[in-house]
Design goal:
With 127 residues, the chain is α/β, with parallel strands linked by helices. Helix content is 31%, strand content 16%. Strands 2-1-3-4-5 form a 5-stranded parallel sheet. Helix 3 links the parallel strand 4 and strand 5.
Length: 127
């Protein structure tokens, strides 16, 4: 049985899941990617999500339905892989106790290093 679910709005893209990352996730617990999830009703998406303990969201994901707050089924955790969770995870799910994390800061060290370099350059009067 697969443990991880990702529902795309349109067609799946390597922008979030490369072939290597899909292979690694398959070993971890199996990943199902449902394409064109935007064509499903909220009720249909909720039914699919309830069968999985983990929902992966990110660029191009279909939004998780707010009705999952009342009955999340097996869903215990939503892992957002890119940027803000707001477009993909309604506040009702967080308030209902579904754990949500945001891995959108994976490049935080690089961004901080770049910002520091710019600050130092400005301090030294570089243009």
């Amino acid at each position: 049985m697969k443990k991880l679910l990702h529902i795309t709005s349109g067609e799946a893209s390597e922008r979030i899941f490369s072939r290597a990352s899909i292979a690694a996730l398959e070993e971890f617990g199996g990943l199902e990617i449902v394409e064109n999830g935007i064509e499903l009703t909220d009720r249909q998406r909720a039914t699919r999500i309830r069968d999985y303990p983990v929902l992966l969201t990110g660029w191009g994901s279909a939004k998780a339905p707010a009705c999952l707050a009342e009955d999340p089924g097996k869903l215990k955790y939503i892992c957002n892989l890119t940027g803000s969770v707001t477009p993909f995870v309604p506040l009702e799910l967080i308030e209902a106790g579904v754990r949500v994390t945001n891995w959108g800061d994976n490049n935080a060290n690089e961004v901080a290093e770049g910002a520091m370099s710019l600050l130092l350059a400005k301090r030294k009067g570089m243009h």
